[in-house]
Write a structure and sequence with these properties.
Shape of chain A: globular
Number of helices of chain A: 15
Helix content of chain B: 25-40%
Order of helices and strands of chain B: EHHEEHEHHEHHHHHHH
CATH topology of chain A: Cytochrome-c3 Hydrogenase, chain B
Number of domains of chain B: 2
CATH superfamily of chain A: Cytochrome-c3 Hydrogenase, chain B
Strand content of chain A: 15-25%
Shape of chain B: globular
Distance between the termini of chain B: 62 Å
Strand content of chain B: 5-15%
Helix content of chain A: 40-55%
Structural class of chain A: alpha+beta
Strand order of the largest sheet of chain B: 2-1-3-4-5
Distance between the termini of chain A: 10 Å
Largest sheet of chain B: 5 strands, parallel
Number of domains of chain A: 1
Order of helices and strands of chain A: EEEHHHHHHEEHHEEEHEEHHHEEEHHHE
CATH architecture of the largest domain in chain B: 3-Layer(aba) Sandwich
Number of strands of chain A: 14
Radius of gyration of chain A: 21 Å
Largest interface: A-B, 71 and 62 residues
Oligomer: heterodimer
């Protein structure tokens, strides 16, 4: 008679928001995996109704303190489509730069402060700093440089105030952006070093036949635009998103699970973007990936930490390119006239695809809002990863197994605050 | 133990309904983080560490609002574990943006978002921490200002009153030498009734303050409502402006309700 074990993390650490993980084992066989999200529902899609479209970018930022820019970007693009607004190409460039800032800040936070401690065997970055002071100081400076872009363009790093439908409330003159270049050149070097550091970690031998989903643009690594593609034949306009993806409400979670109608679970985020858009990375990032022995496709989710570092290289290089080419737009934002309409958009938040749709009435008020955050989309895939990963480790002591399961969840940089608009770990052994 | 041989004060960070942004402010204090971590023992901070030391704690920082029965019980336990309890951010001090449910129908709200409403357990109201337990200090803002957070932690540990002004955003505009956007450009601005702390960011970005630090001490909202009407704002517009990130703060709530009655 094999014994039953329950492995649980009652409060999953080093993720944004609150959730728990429950894994039930009968011998080496996993009988149940549940990622429970008990982050309380905040009901954004309900209270956005009746608000003016101009208020939406400020409101949706509050879904997530780690990636407010992502929420603002998806929102303004969706609303601009609903209202038929055309933006200046310089606004498009500034939005890419703004997103670079958030990617640098969020990736530096996740790589070094949330994920690296797992690989080096520390409970947190503070204790890691006792032995790896230089690494942590470098990470903090990287993060600060990312935050510096967001603060310069948006007034503050969390919930920046400059994003408007049609553009920005204020755009920086060239003279304000230029001084960032020196720091960004340092950041590019530091990112290259980061790729080398994390590529040297030990990775579990674990691969899955993922369906990766990301935006894809013919000329550039995706931020705000592109078609929605996958490695299993999906190639659609974002307007068709809801024909192909559906949200399911499961009892154990306050976050909805998003699945592909045709094929079930899928993965969004750095690994998906990298596998689908490698050719659009600048040469410096491609070379860093090759030096780190990363090849396309990478199907090992633990290696996502290297991919995140490669994306750091990309974001620094892209920020430099954007600032060097920057010419301010004629006006900070396009004139927006109120009309009734429906618009949707998807952009690439640091942790993956973020979809928004709004219906706006002839007074400019929101009648309907739908928001699908990256963690909702990854949630089912995280549970499936654990179902396959746990049996490999079933013979290990519960403490070690619990930590490894947490690490497997952190591969996804889950943001539970976003997904409920995540994590206690519980492993039951029968 | 620190170098004087005294035991380091234990700090804990607790989260309720929120976006995580205010506790992230601690990690965003990149220049101070390692110094703070050297001066205190960060004993419980699940967003940053999987090592969670048991209480009691010297200082508890609480982010987020109370929106579930479970959280209403949890905050009682948290209070018992913390010698000093300080709340950080608009969710913890005023119920946050999710308090917009308070003027709506919660069952209808849940039905709008979730396919199976019976799986969801949530309270009708989103309420600030101080409606549930005594609070030693409330740090305002959506999000909080990280310099104010570092000042609050230092002051609390030193046993002195934190230097956090309760004047209006207008004072910060004056200090930045901003031309008043309401007077010069007729832009609607909540600065005259909103507590300082952000550094008057919005007016510096050519837009009106949207009140994310909540009501200042004794705000003259009646006068501001008249001024906003003179600028051509409709009562529904004014009501919406006060129904934002601090909608449940009583001064803003009352003003919004009055404007709604006027409609």
């Amino acid at each position: 008679m094999s014994s039953t074990r329950t492995i649980k993390a009652d409060l999953l650490a080093r993720v944004e928001g609150e959730g728990a993980l429950l894994v039930k084992l009968k011998g080496d066989r996993v009988t149940d995996v549940k990622l429970k999200i008990f982050e309380p529902p905040r009901l954004f899609e309900a209270f956005l109704r009746g608000r003016h479209f101009s208020e939406v970018p400020d409101f949706v930022a509050r879904i997530c303190g780690i990636c407010p820019v992502a929420y603002q970007m998806s929102a303004v693009h969706a609303i601009e489509r609903a209202l038929g607004v055309q933006t200046d190409p310089a606004i498009r460039m500034l939005r890419r730069l703004f997103y670079c800032g958030e990617w640098i800040e969020s990736h530096a936070l996740h790589i070094f402060m949330l994920h690296t401690p797992d690989f080096l065997g520390y409970p947190d970055v503070i204790r890691m700093a006792r032995d790896y002071r230089e690494v942590v100081e470098q990470a903090l400076r990287l993060k600060k440089i990312g935050n510096g872009i967001v603060t310069l363009m948006g007034g503050r790093e969390i919930h920046p105030v400059s994003v408007a439908v049609g553009g920005f409330y204020r755009v920086p003159p060239k003279s304000e952006l230029r001084p960032l270049l020196e720091d960004l050149k340092w950041a590019l070097d530091a990112s290259l070093q980061s790729v080398r550091l994390v590529a040297g970690f030990e990775f579990p031998d674990f691969e899955q036949p993922y369906e990766f989903v990301a935006l894809s643009h013919p000329d550039e690594y995706p931020f705000n635009e592109g078609r929605l593609v996958s490695n299993k034949g999906l190639d659609i306009d974002v307007a068709e998103y809801e024909e192909h993806f559906v949200e399911q409400h499961v009892k154990h979670s306050n976050a909805l699970h998003s699945v592909l109608r045709a094929r079930g679970s899928y993965m969004v985020g750095p690994l998906a973007r990298f596998n689908l858009n490698f050719a659009r990375l600048p040469e410096v990032a491609q070379q860093a990936a090759r030096d780190a022995m990363l090849s396309v496709p990478c199907n090992n989710p633990f290696r996502s930490i290297i991919v995140r570092a490669v994306e750091l290289v990309f974001a620094c290089a892209e920020a430099i390119r954007t600032i060097e080419a920057y010419e301010p737009p004629a006006a900070p934002r396009a004139t927006v006239s109120t009309q009734a309409g429906v618009g949707c958009a998807a952009t690439e938040a640091p942790r993956g695809l973020l979809y928004h749709r709004y219906r706006i009435d002839d007074q400019g008020l929101v009648q309907f809002a739908k928001i699908v955050p990256p963690t909702s989309q990854n949630q089912k895939r995280i549970e499936e990863d654990l179902q396959h990963f746990v049996p490999q480790l079933a013979s290990r002591p519960t403490d070690e197994l619990t930590w490894k399961c947490e690490q497997a969840v952190r591969n996804y940089d889950p943001c539970i605050s976003c997904a409920t608009h995540f994590l206690r770990l519980q492993i039951e052994r029968e | 133990m620190n170098s004087n041989g005294r035991k380091k004060p234990k700090i804990a960070v607790f989260k309720f309904a929120s976006c995580d942004g205010c506790q992230l402010s601690l990690l965003d204090a990149e220049d101070e983080l390692l110094a703070v971590a050297g001066a205190v023992e960060i004993a419980y901070f699940p967003e940053a560490s999987r090592s969670m030391a048991k209480g009691p704690y010297d200082v508890g920082l609480v982010e987020g609002s109370i929106t579930t029965h479970h959280d209403a019980e949890r905050i009682q336990q948290v209070r018992r574990q913390c010698h000093k309890l300080v709340t950080i951010g608009a969710c913890a001090t005023a119920g946050g943006i999710q308090a917009l449910r308070n003027s709506g129908d919660i069952d209808e709200f849940v039905r709008v978002v979730y396919a199976t409403p019976q799986f969801i357990s949530t309270l009708k109201l989103s309420t600030p921490i101080a409606e549930h337990v005594p609070v030693d200090f409330e740090l305002r803002g959506c999000p909080i200002n990280k310099n104010q957070l570092v000042e609050l932690i230092s002051a609390t540990l030193a046993g002195r009153k934190p230097n956090i002004p309760t004047s209006s955003v207008c004072m910060e505009c004056k200090r930045r030498a901003n031309v008043c956007i309401a007077v010069a450009e007729g832009i609607a601005c909540l600065g005259p009734v909103t507590q300082a702390g952000c550094g008057a960011i919005c007016p510096s970005f050519n837009r009106g303050c949207y009140g994310c630090y909540g009501p200042m001490e004794s705000p003259n909202t009646v006068s501001l409502v008249n001024q906003l009407r003179n600028l051509g704002q409709s009562d529904p517009q004014i009501a919406r402006a006060f129904r934002g990130f601090n909608a449940w703060a009583w001064q803003f709530r009352k003003t919004a309700e009055e404007c709604e009655r006027h409609e």
